[in-house]
Each structure stands twice: as C-alpha cells, then as structure tokens.
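We close this part of the discussion by returning to an individual protein. The encoding preserves chain order, so positions in sequence and tokens coincide. The sequence in question and its structure tokens are set out directly beneath this paragraph:

===
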Amino acid sequence: MRVTAETKTRTRQALLRSARKLFEKRGFEPATTRDITAAAGIALGTLFNYFPSKEALALAIIAECLEAAEGEFSEKLRGDEPLEEALFLHIATGLRHLRPCRPYEFSVLESTLGPLTSDRACPEAQELRPRHLDTV
C-alpha cells in the first residue's frame, strides 16, 4: 500500500495533536510514546517514521508555537517602534504562544537546544535553532 503525502500529513498532525494533549494532561515524562500512538490511533513503530524521539516530537510542538508567535509578531510589528518595544513584543508574543508547553518546555529545550547538546541527539534542533535566532 502506497502512503500519500496527504496521509503522511494527517498522521503527523494526529501524532502532534495526541502528544500535545497528553503532555498537557499528564506531563512530558509520564506520557509515553505508546500512549501517544494509541491516542493517535496508529502503530507504535509508525511514530519513529516521523520523529526519532519523544523529545523531537515535543520540539516539533514547540516549533509550531514559535512559528505561530513569529507570524503574530510580524503582523503586529509596525516597524517604527523603538528596539525595546519591539523586543518586548517579540518576547511577550512568544511566551503567550508557548503557554501550553510550559509544563515541559524547559526540559525539552534544555535537552535539545542546550549549549552542550549534540545536534545528532535531536536533528529537529538543527532547524529550529537558526530559525529562532534569525527571528530574534
């Protein structure tokens, strides 16, 4: 059976949606990959076709939040505000969008984006780090 791009997108979104709910409800550590795949209605091994680890899955959720924040920030930015005001807007927008991730964001960001972290540990960090730094 051939898997279409649309099916892959739906599966990825189901994993993200299930993980988001479980992380918020149970916390990052207690939620297992087995729980996430069961909630998404897919086989356990399928998860690893999309994300190499639970941390990578959580990082994808955080990246989506940051992307939404970046869009809102760009819409609200007039371009003539002082640097301090623009920085405050950027930080406030990011924090507001990351609110649902607060219970687990620190441990995930520390383990994936920390200065002593290997990019091999979480390839998604290679993409997120420069994109976020460019925004800042």
Q: What stands out?
A: The two ends are 44 Å apart (CA to CA). The helical segments are 5-26, 33-40, 44-50, 54-76, 83-98, 102-113, 123-135. The chain has a mean pLDDT of 86.
